[in-house]
Amino acid sequence: IGNFVFNEIVIGSQSGVTARVRSWDSINNILEVSNVDGQFVAGENIVGTASSASHYLSSINTYLVKDGFSSNDDILIIV
What we know:
Blueprint: E1 9-12, E2 18-25, E3 30-37, E4 45-48, E5 54-56, E6 59-63, E7 74-78
Antiparallel strand pairs: 1-2, 1-4, 2-3, 3-7, 4-5, 6-7
């Protein structure tokens, strides 16, 4: 339910993991996050702290972004 907001902190409901929203594709239900502190668990809800959006985490795709600025991995979450 709802839409995540750019740069808001999201929290995994079971894992307690926090991350920052980089992008949210509401049509395809794809959430891209960075600055991840821990490891999300498939099957948990991801909840936005500013938007109160909540979506079920169905799969995770971790990949490195080589943009010259980021030192953190980005996580692509299919919700």
